[in-house]
Design goal:
Number of domains: 2
CATH superfamily of the largest domain: NAD(P)-binding Rossmann-like Domain
Strand content: 5-15%
Strand order of the largest sheet: 3-2-1-4-5-7
Helix content: 40-55%
Bound molecules: nicotinamide-adenine-dinucleotide, serine
Structural class: alpha/beta
Number of strands: 14
Radius of gyration: 19 Å
CATH architecture of the largest domain: 3-Layer(aba) Sandwich
């Protein structure tokens, strides 16, 4: 793929671990620079360059940009919804200053040609229609994470309009995968439920029965991320962030899908503060703009994802 050099910031998390592997498959190991606060022991990170980087340290970040001259930056470092509520001031600082450091470097340094930065369903709020949530409409997030995502979307769009920074973004639903652990979100139960199903055949859920949320299987998330980054500029018509949907379900529905494979699996409920966060988010997303503009279409529904998750996780237990 051309002469691109890729820098991934926050690469050792749930998404980054898989994204680095996918990007190295496309661009070659030495052309994808992974970076994070510290290197994780996942073998993915042995295959190519890794830099220790705190994105809040702008000087060190710019030195890395000078050193590798990345043409594409994927900026993934953030505090997710549940963790952010425990330290709201720091979450705001990390989520916003980190983004500004990336956007300003892209504007000022003449090296970075394209920036990917994910938003989230958390950018919506209680006055957003929960079903068939439109691309444009009322957005009144109630979490510091959601406020930072909505603000980030508007700034990404502003840098594109004002300075021509080629920003691209997706509003991810809850991401589910078997290769890496989630990092403190409200949707994390939908990952741990599979591990629990295989280990103890029981899962205690922190969300109530009937709490429907949008979710996306990791192979679809990777496909969408790479597709929007590879799309010709004129196809990326929305520069704030695109709605993106895969599937929607509540805890009892994912439990039933697991019971098709493990009939004696049981779910119980012990609801905590994350219920309130979940209730402020959409249930079913309308992603027709992504479908129309750059051809988005997910491959996985709940049953297909469940079969794949369980088949792959079985190997680790
Ligand atoms: P994660 O918490 O698993 O990973 C984040 C990574 O960022 C971690 O490896 C962490 O060490 C790193 N990091 C934290 N502070 C840093 C700093 N100061 N400098 C450099 N690195 C730092 O998160 P994730 O699930 O991989 O999410 C990646 C992105 O996708 C985030 O922006 C998140 O908001 C967004 N997103 C994720 C989901 C999801 O369900 N996982 C849903 C919507 C949006
Ligand atoms: N999965 C994420 C979270 O729960 C949504 O951005 O925080």
């Amino acid at each position: 793929m051309g002469t691109e050099k890729i820098l991934v910031i926050g690469s050792c998390g749930q998404l980054g671990t898989e994204l680095v592997e996918a990007l190295r498959g496309i661009y070659g190991d030495s052309n994808v620079i992974a970076s994070d606060l510290k290197k994780s022991d996942n073998p993915v990170f042995e295959a190519g360059p890794f830099e220790t980087l705190d994105i809040l340290d702008e000087k060190s970040f710019r030195e890395i940009v000078e050193k590798y001259k990345p043409t594409h930056v994927y900026h993934l470092a953030a505090l997710l919804s549940a963790t952010a509520e425990k330290m709201p001031e720091f979450a705001w600082k990390l989520n916003m200053d980190g983004l500004f450091h990336v956007l300003n470097a892209a504007r000022d340094m003449g090296v970075i040609k394209r920036v990917y930065w994910p938003s989230s369903i958390a950018a919506f709020g209680p006055n957003t229609p929960r079903y068939n949530t439109p691309q444009f409409g009322s957005m009144d997030p109630t979490t510091v994470y959601g406020i930072s995502k909505l603000s980030g979307e508007l700034y990404a769009q502003y840098y594109y309009n004002r300075w021509g920074v080629d920003t691209r973004s997706l509003r991810y639903p809850g991401l589910i995968g078997y290769k890496s652990a989630p990092g403190g979100g409200t949707t994390d139960y939908a990952v741990s439920i599979y591990h629990d199903a295989l280990q103890t055949k029981t899962h205690e859920c922190f969300l109530k029965e009937g709490t429907v949320l949008p979710m996306l299987y990791m192979p679809d998330a990777l496909k969408a991320t790479l597709d929007i980054m590879h799309a010709p500029s004129e196809q990326v018509k929305i520069r704030s962030s695109y709605n993106l949907a895969g599937m929607s379900f509540g805890p009892e529905e994912i439990a039933a899908a697991i019971q098709n494979h493990i009939p004696d699996f049981k779910i119980t409920y012990n609801v905590d503060y994350r219920q309130q966060i979940a209730e402020s988010w959409p249930a079913v997303i309308d992603d027709s703009s992504a479908r129309e503009d750059w051809g988005w279409k997910p491959d996985y529904d709940l049953d297909k994802m469940t079969a794949d998750m369980l088949a792959n996780l079985k190997n680790s237990y």
